Amino acid sequence: MRMKSLMRGAVGCMLLLSMLSATGCASERQEQNITIAVICKNKNKDEYWDSVRQACDDAQAEMKVNIMQLSPDIEDVDQQIANINEAVAAGVDAIVLAAIDPDAENEALSKANSAGIPVLTIDSDVTYDGRACYIGTQNASAAAIAARSAKEILQNDGTIGVVYHGSTSTATLRMSGFMQEINPPEDEKADKPAGAGSKPNNSHQGNPPEVPDEPGSKSAASDVNIKILESLNGEGDMEISKDMVKKLITEQHVNLVYATNQPGTRGACEAIEELIDAGTIQPDEVQLVGFDYFSGAYDYITSGILDAVIVQNPYNMGYMGVRTARSLIQGEQVQPSIDTGAVLVTADNINEEYIQFLVNPSGN
Amino acid sequence: MARKNTRRNTIDVKRRRDPGIRKIGRMYIIMGIIYVVFIAFNMIVENLVYVNTRDQYDVSLESVNRVAVLRKEFSKINQNVLVLASVEVESEKQALLNQIENSMITLGEEEQIFLESVKDRSENATRRFKHVMYALDVYENKIDDIKDRLLTMDSKEAVDIYVQELNPLWMIANEMLGAVTEITSREAAMSRVKIAMNHGAAQISLVIMVIILIIMLVVFGNRQVKTLIEVQNQTRELNEASARLTKSRKKLLDSAMTNILTGMKNRYALDESLSQLINNAQFNIAVFDVDNFRNINDMYGYEVGDEYLSTIAERLKEEYSEYAEMFNITGNEFCMIFYEHVSDVQAQQLAEQIRLGIGQPTMVAGSLVLQAPVSASLYHYLPSDNLDVNTLLMRMDSALHAAKRDGGNRMYQIQ
């Protein structure tokens, strides 16, 4: 009988303790009820999207929010629309989207907004007005960084050939930002805007993107004698880009190639390497400035084939995407655009810790 | 019920005096010491836990403050870079550049201090802060790269670099610092909750221990009292049994010392009494013998003879118990040792009176009246006579037989 009373006392104390711990965790539970859908462009094992996913995992651990990772198997816009609908059906609190197409997903996003789910984009923006925020590289700014690097490499004298990737918004901005920096219009020279924050360009695939000056124009700066001889469409494909770069080098004899995306940069590296191997050009005869790091880029950079590459910060896109989504859910005001920055990687800084982290955030 | 209460009272009295009570007292002192030791232990443990959690809490708070300093310092650098990009005068540019470089040194030191303070304590804060450091590193390297050109660079290019390369890094670092603050604040809040919970748990465990100790004290104490009562009961029963044994032993001894017929003490008892007196006391002793008692036995039978003797014995006990200790040493022979308060003269008178009393007519068997003369001997013994028991009794016998030889019905006093 006495033992029973003792047991009852002990159980009572345990209940009291568990009540105390439950009170302590109450505030945490509130945040854990938040669910954010993050929709990338594909599920492939890819350094870029792996960085985004890694950032989401880190954000989940730090902010105590739930992350629902949804992505199409391949870069398929219909699949991504299905992902958006799935997130809406699951009743998520916000959607973070890396849009495959700037227009095609607007309707699905509009439906999400109607259901009270805020939408924000990372990496690639959409034309839908209802998206709360775009988080990613300001492509025009990143292109301007590439252009300054090109000028430095050419020491303000030489010819440039461009291989771009179709007429996507990214390609357009990376072209215009680059050309504007190389050949700033006379009237804008004194007080040129920073070039960030432009809306995506919706020009049709295959048409050359709008640029400030016609290809072949000479830099207007008195001490700069750089000509952009030709811009060719690599269609975002490595092999086509490679052919285009070979054409630029063998036919136009450009001193420097500028590639606007990763397949273009990769194709350009291979093209230059093959031309050097074939003895068509000398090592260091043709310089290359590209976009986006890829496995194998390290060797091209250290061997001098790839002189500079613009590296974006997909990790920051993922992390800031989740953080900004949480702010939206909590009713806070957010900026319409957040620049996650772009860094120029060269043989001089490739081994720096922060560059290594940037190109390989998971450390593998 | 009354008997029960009496018994309990007896036990209570005994309990106060019993060494068992002291044992229980000692047990309570030991329990008290255990209790004090436990409280001291509990206080030490609670204090350690508190200090540890408090330390974490302080570190978290300090982190929040240091993040604010880092933010302020970096913000100052970023602002100076913007001003540097806009001013035209070279001396102003140089002054700003110096300021920026100094701030960067301070910022670098603050970074290291912060990293040291959090790296072993918060995985999340450390990871997030590394992102701040990466952004700061890129920012710093860019400034390093262009600082020589900054003095001569046209303001359009400087502003471009600021807007396109540096300011995004500042914004990202600022956001990441916000995240660090959030993480450290959350951890500080968690530490606060932990402090409260640890304190609560320590208090509860203390209360539980006190309750357990009290229960142990009550249970153990009760058990001790029960054992003590059992021991006391057993002791009392043993004492009672021992008393009974002594009584029955005395009874047995008495029966060995008593004449069954007359109920008077026998010859052994006489020897016992005399051996205690003979060496150090003066006393008067008389022996009486019914003359020709054998004739009564022969004439009326042993039964009448026995009844005759027992009746005489009863009469003697009734009349002379206060004067003398009486013995029936053989069938018809009585002995009396007069008490100290009886004087020699009185003893002589009483002896004569007894002799005559025994010889008075006595009714036996309802209707038969028997009377027989009695002879006696009397001895006023002095320690200086220095006799042993046997010699004394032989002398008494000799005097008695002399009286009988001289015709009986008389008393001779031994000189």
SSE layout and pairings?
The complex is a heterodimer of chains A (about 375) and B (about 425).
Chain A (H helix, E strand, L loop, with lengths): L1 H23 L1 H7 L2 E5 L7 H17 L2 E5 L6 H13 L4 E4 L8 H9 L4 E4 L10 E4 L2 H16 L2 E8 L4 H14 L3 H4 L35 E9 L4 H14 L4 E4 L2 H16 L9 E5 L5 H6 L5 E5 L1 H16 L7 E3 L2 E4 L7 H7 L5
Parallel strand pairs in A: 1-2, 1-3, 3-4, 4-5, 5-11, 6-7, 6-8, 8-9, 9-10
Antiparallel strand pairs in A: 10-12
Helix pairs in contact in A: 3-12, 4-5, 6-7, 9-10
Chain B lengths: L1 H16 L1 H68 L3 H30 L3 H28 L4 H103 L9 H11 L5 E8 L2 H8 L1 H19 L3 E7 L2 E6 L5 H15 L3 E3 L3 E3 L3 E8 L7 H17 L5 E4 L1
Parallel strand pairs in B: 6-7
Antiparallel strand pairs in B: 1-3, 1-6, 2-3, 4-5
Helix pairs in contact in B: 2-3, 2-5, 3-4, 4-5, 7-8
For this entry, give a set of tags.
heterodimer, A: 364 residues, alpha/beta, Rossmann fold, six-stranded parallel beta sheet, six-stranded mixed beta sheet, 12 strands, B: alpha+beta, 2 domains, five-stranded mixed beta sheet, two-stranded antiparallel sheet, 10 helices, rod-shaped
Structural overview:
- The complex is a heterodimer of chains A (364) and B (415).
- Chain A is elongated.
- Chain A has 13 helices and 12 strands.
- About 14% of the residues of chain A have low confidence.
- In chain A, the strands form 2 sheets. Chain A has a 6-stranded parallel β-sheet.
- Chain A has 2 domains: 134 residues, Response regulator (Rossmann fold, 3-Layer(aba) Sandwich); 174 residues, Rossmann fold (3-Layer(aba) Sandwich).
- In chain A, helix 3 links the parallel strand 1 and strand 2.
- Chain A is of the alpha/beta class.
- With 415 residues, chain B is of the alpha+beta class.
- Chain B has 2 domains: 223 residues, Up-down Bundle (Four Helix Bundle (Hemerythrin (Met), subunit A)); 148 residues, Reverse transcriptase/Diguanylate cyclase domain (Alpha-Beta Plaits).
- Chain B is built from 10 helices and 7 strands.
- In chain B, helix 7 packs across helix 8.
- Chain B is rod-shaped and about 180 Å long.
- Classes of the chains: A alpha/beta (364), B alpha+beta (415).
- Chains A and B meet through helix 1, helix 3, helix 6, helix 12 and helix 13 of A and helix 4 and helix 5 of B.
